[in-house]
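User: My collaborator sent over this chain with a note saying "see what the structure looks like." That's all I know about it. Can you take a look?
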Amino acid sequence: MKETPLSNCERDFLLKAIEEKKRLDGRQTYDYRKIKIVFGTDFGCCFVELGKTRVMAQVSCELVAPKDNRPNEGIMFFNIELSPMASPAFEQSRQSELSVKLNRQLERCLRNSRCIDTESLCVVSGEKVWQIRVDVHMLNHDGNLMDAASIAAIAALCHFRRPDVGIQGDEITVYSPEERDPIPLSIYHMPICVSFSFFQQGTYLLVDPCEREERVMDGLLMIAMNKHREICSIQSSGGIMLLKEQVMRCSKIASVKVSEITELISKALENDKAARKAGGRCGFAESMPQERITALKKDETAVEMTDVSQRAEDIIHKAEATPQTSQPLVVPVPGVGQVGQGLSNSWGIEEDEHDTEEDINSDEEEDDKETKMEVEQNKHKQGGKGDVVEISDSEEEDVVILDPETADPKDKSTSSSSHQKGPAASKKMRQKIKGHI
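Assistant: Without extra context I'll predict from the sequence alone. Here is the result:
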């Protein structure tokens, strides 16, 4: 699933606010968001909140064979997981370009800077060494994942304790925490990443960009530094060219931020150590009542609830009754509903029925008039030859002789038969004429 792109209005609004040296969350240009560090119940588990960005780091260890080129040194392995829970744009199955970029930057920041004594992780030279694995999981993405991941990783490494090992001949014995106290790692210094975002080709600079600011930025500069002002790694991304003065200014800002974050990590470690030594609540047991595990903590808003019922009654009395716009339903029989009972029918069904009956009667009268007119016209046309009326049809032709005296002698039989039949024959003939018409 792809992330929803920013609209042009949002992009213009963000850039206009940056030009006026304003940020969405009210911070200044060089301000960091609030950082919160919480350690888990087990050693080596650390939660870091950088504003709304949440990251969890877990450190584990395993006895493995050393590398051929470094038989006396332990192995450091880093893995960053971008969970779909953090952002809809992250996919679970495949490794994205962002995760590869974060993995490489974290390795350069912690492993290549030699912040941990890897020779102290050797158990038997050329045979067994400790492999330290650091898994970083993104729980919520709100920008600046690299800074949050570096803080969580170095804090988890400082909090981690590896099991003690005993060697007797060719046998290697790993003792449990109940048998022997675990041993902390040898850490020389704590490198921490600080990110700088540039806008409008390096004209404007922001520290600790949020997720929306990262979408509209032109370039990003990440500097990994320790509290001794030693630059461990530096990386620039984006299509901008930075001047030497800009890089120097960013390094000075990073030295101040790194010293503050290092003090915060040291204080969090001391508080956790004191809580474990005193036997008090620590880890998840302490963080669960404060809702730090399942959801982001939200500040409660006080609401006045003393006279709510009285205010509600006053509003009801002052409100006007709603006008009745439609006629209520009439239920003559239970289970049967009828709309508009007693009103005149507006569908026009009865009127149509009357109209159809009148149309049929008028058509019949017109047909009768037309037949009479045709008969009279034929009489006038045949007036000189005798009163003979011929009515023709497509199927058959009948000749009716009304005056037998003017007819031919050959047709006497026909005329006599017609006179013999009398009024019945004339009635039958009229019905036949009407049927043809």
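A starting point for your reply to your collaborator: Confidence is low (pLDDT under 50) at residues 345-353, 384-398, 406-421.
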